[in-house]
Amino acid sequence: MKKDxxxxxxxxxxxxxxxxxxxxxxxxxxxxFALPCFPxxxxxxxxxxxxxxxxxGSLTHPSIRKVEAxxxxxxxxxxxxxxxxxxxxxxxxxxxxxxxxxxxNGGVVTIDLSSPNIAKPFSMGHLRSTVIGNSIAYLLEKTxxxxxxxxxxxDWGTQFGKLLTAYRKWGNEEEVRQAPIETLLKLYIRFHEExxxxxxxxxxxxxxxxxxxxxDSDALALWDWFKTESLQEFQRIYDLLGVTFDSYNxxxxxxxxxEPVVQELADKGLLVESDGAMxxxxxxxxxxxxxxxxxxxxxxxxxxxxxxxxxxxxYDFVRSIYVVGNEQSxxxxxxxxxxxxxxxxxxxxxxxxxxGLILQGGKKMSTRKGKIVLLEEVLKDAIxxxxxxxxxxxxxxxxxxxxxxxVGVGAILFSDLKxxxxxxxxxxxxxxLQVEGETGPYVQYAHxxxxxxxxxxxxxxxxxxxxxxxxxxxxxxxxxxxxxxVKRANDELDPSVIAKYAVxxxxxFNSFYGNVQVLSxxxxxxxxxxxxxxxxxxxxxxxxxxGIKAPEEM
Length: 554
Fold this sequence. Notes:
The chain is about 55% helix and about 10% strand.
């Protein structure tokens, strides 16, 4: 709609009209769009009132019902029936593909997301990277890109030497098999406790990791077992979240790929010694990028340089996205600058997508009664609470466990994704599951309610539209904005655009539902059923882009 009006304005306006100039009045009595003419007054040497009258007198378009000039504004009223008819037929024809584009032209975009450490619990701290990255992948796919989701598992480093040492001293194979993460974490904690009074343990840990780096078969076998057990544990959580990956290449994968990068930095004269360590100096206002510690050990930057080069060689990406917390912004700026110094122009295609913390009671959510807050426990609590709500409100519902899972998990995801990713978010499980307010269950319930009407109505006949009331028009305007919402969310790599859009559409539908007769008004029944079907299509697709399921009954 907006695009058509802009094109029409270009043909009659004496001055170029930019998209941001066209406003949507808060009061529908002032039109569907308004063009303030005050910015044109100086250049045209005319009053805004005269300019508005001039434009209004000549503006025509099939989508426009009438135009009024009021106090320096051009108020544009759209042809509701024609626009609604065209839009509903378009959405019904395109179904779930409505809002899609080929902007990406099949270009590959790698997305580094989730990335938990093996042999350690999957905590709430990993939720944001996982669900934000997953939603970005859906948005990229919707706009014609080919996303490649990479779970850069933390599976290397000195801590594994400590873990190997602890297992050999105090470990039990059966206990690890019964509860891998819990048992390995206890062993890791015990190592640090024992090392406080027996510092030589640290030397044993370093020696064990050195053996692992050197390819010792026994060390590698244990490390591989720990990794396999950990990934199986993680998979349960990913299954609950509905998240999949295209690659699990973790830190260990890049072991043999770092030295060539270090050598290239040396060959190009970029490595400088600093207190025994090797660094790449950057701008004066930025600390140098540490490549090798004084003992020769590599660092995250070394691995990320190797990973970036490897991913470019393997996927030839048009963009490489890293969904990592706000605190890593300097790190990724340094990595990009080092890649640039190496002569890789594609360094500019690397994008850090930062995000804030999950808070509880205003504090960083990292402990509960001294324990790590496990994501799996939170998800299970949410599902149980959703199940309880269903038992109270709709005890005869079919597939209650499946719906409870969709609602419980959806509530956690939506509460995260509705916030701009850079903001810290407050965790409150009961508030997340409310069916009123800006929550996942609220949007899911609107979708289920719309489907309930469709089940009662049956398939609609062909429809003709003779009028569109304000409640219907509010829905139509929002439905027409979905493609723009998808584009903006993709451009800004911000799923909250879609989450907020979904809430707006659910609210518009609920207002319509509370004020408009559908099944009993034969004259408008088939048109309204088609409108509701379009609402279900767009709400379901909006939730899908957030990685959330849309139950047809709740």
